[in-house]
Design a protein that fits this description.
The protein is α/β, with parallel strands linked by helices and about 450 residues long. The chain folds into 2 domains: about 230 residues, Periplasmic binding protein-like II (D-Maltodextrin-Binding Protein, domain 2, 3-Layer(aba) Sandwich), CATH 3.40.190; about 200 residues, D-Maltodextrin-Binding Protein, domain 2, CATH 3.40.190. Helices cover about 40% and strands about 15% of the residues. Belongs to the bacterial solute-binding protein 1 family.
């Protein structure tokens, strides 16, 4: 394993990661805690093993990050799986800092069996590069869940591929976007912006009312990149998201595309109008989210986990509104930059049979439905995103994601060093210390090193 590359993971955050500090609203879970085998099984089809399935036994360890989505679903699904497989000894390694705590074990070649790739310190592309994950390519082709449904037929987004191979399967479907308070906008008579021109006009009105139009999570700039910059680049590239994919593949020619500069200039326009809260650059995601909830700021770039993460701090009457993008030109399509959190099996897992069986178990429709209910976020199972049990902001996202007027961008994952360079450059751009051209040069210098 390349230990130098692994060490960069603590500094870099992937496009697909949930907020690095999401653990603030989640109660820490004890590391290496045994699953509650006494929990009553749920009366769903997925609570029983498939007929003829191999009997599972031995130790089985699951690593999962507890952030904005909480851990209610994990407790439930693990208890259900334990009830269906009583001879297994399931160990949960979980919590807001679990990825950091488990890193020495991954490096030492003693990883857990099953891993939820989400939160800080885990970066799917880097894990694949370092040979940490099991190759699931052949297994995934025909594998069925415990209900007998072919998993590949159920997914809204297919697994990412690395040189044509599959190592992780997406379970959580998230869309980046811009949040606002519908109740505040209704009270003030402000309209939801449909494009960048309307966003800028509305922001002028908001600023005149004494409220900062826009705040971002300065210490975690991948929020403004994922929710603002990437959609802007796609819109500027005639709604073709292949440019983002080429950028992620370190194609130096792609980085010369003028659509990147056009997208960056949207940040410049917003900055030069004084619409970006100057506090942004100094604070983390939860602090910026708190200011947003207090109506100190009207818009915030974020992911669908935001309302659940801040549930304890949401004022009475606050009504989350969600727009996937605000950077399209008048008449242009909305761009939904989606991301997924994925499940994988360690290459050096000691109980691969149990890990694969658990994968088949969690991709049952019943478990996916429970995820939407218990986490407040959509799963990657088709149809689940518009579940009537989902919160209103998730339903808003579902309408956009299912609309023919929306460009849905599949998950794009950048190399760790490149992603870090983009984050740093975006912060510098928001405060005016560099130009869009400087931004591109900074990042392409890092891309060029990756090519060597």
């Amino acid at each position: 394993m390349n230990l130098k590359k692994w060490s960069t993971m603590g500094l870099a955050v992937s496009v697909v990661l949930v907020a690095a500090g999401c653990g603030k609203s989640a109660a820490p879970t004890e590391t290496a805690k045994p699953a509650a085998a006494t929990a009553a099984p749920t009366a769903v089809a997925s609570a029983a093993p498939t007929t003829g399935a191999k009997k599972l036994s031995g130790d089985f360890e699951i690593q999962y990050f507890v952030g904005g989505y909480g851990d209610k679903w994990w407790k439930k699904v693990i208890a259900d799986f334990q009830a269906a497989n009583p001879d297994l000894k399931i160990k949960e390694s979980a919590g807001p800092k679990i990825n950091e705590q488990m890193k020495p074990r991954w490096i030492a070649g003693n990883p857990p069996d099953f891993v939820y790739i989400d939160g800080p310190e885990l970066f799917d592309r880097q894990m694949v590069t370092d040979g940490l994950l099991e190759d699931l390519t052949d297994w995934y082709k025909d594998v069925k869940n415990v209900d007998g449904d072919k998993i590949s037929d159920l997914l809204a987004q297919q697994p990412p591929q690395y040189d044509g191979k599959i190592y992780n399967i997406p379970f959580v479907l998230n869309s980046w976007g811009i949040f606002y308070d519908k109740a505040l906008f209704k009270e003030k008579g402000w309209a939801e912006p449909k494009d960048f021109e309307e966003f800028m006009k509305t922001s002028e009105t908001i600023k005149a009312a004494g409220i900062n139009p826009f705040i971002h999570t300065g210490k975690y700039p991948y929020y403004i990149n994922g929710a603002f910059l990437y959609p802007a680049i796609v819109s500027a590239n005639n709604n073709d998201y292949k440019l983002l994919q080429d950028m992620a593949n370190n194609n130096l020619e792609a980085w010369k595309n003028p659509a990147i500069i056009k997208g960056l200039n949207k940040i410049v326009q917003m900055r030069d109008k004084g619409f970006i809260d100057k506090a942004s650059v100094q604070i983390n995601h939860t602090d910026s989210q708190s200011l947003f909830l207090q109506h100190k700021d009207a818009f915030i770039p974020n992911g669908l986990w935001l309302p659940n993460e801040m549930a304890k701090d949401v004022p009475s009457g606050f009504d989350f509104g969600f727009i996937p993008s605000i950077t399209q030109d008048k008449g242009g399509k909305v761009v939904a930059n989606t991301s997924t959190s994925t499940f994988a099996i360690a290459k050096k897992a000691k109980n691969k049979d149990a890990a694969k069986a658990f994968m088949q178990f969690v991709f049952a429709k019943a478990q996916a439905g429970q995820w939407a209910e218990l986490s407040g976020a959509p799963s990657n199972i088709k149809g689940d995103i518009s579940s009537s049990k989902a919160p209103n902001f998730v339903k808003d996202a579902a309408k956009f994601l299912s609309s023919s007027d929306t460009v849905v961008v599949p998950t794009v994952s950048f190399a760790a060093d490149v992603d870090k360079a983009m984050q740093d450059a975006s912060v510098a751009l928001t405060i005016g210390t560099i130009t869009p051209e400087d931004w591109v040069k900074r990042v392409t210098d890092v891309v060029a090193k990756q090519k060597k």
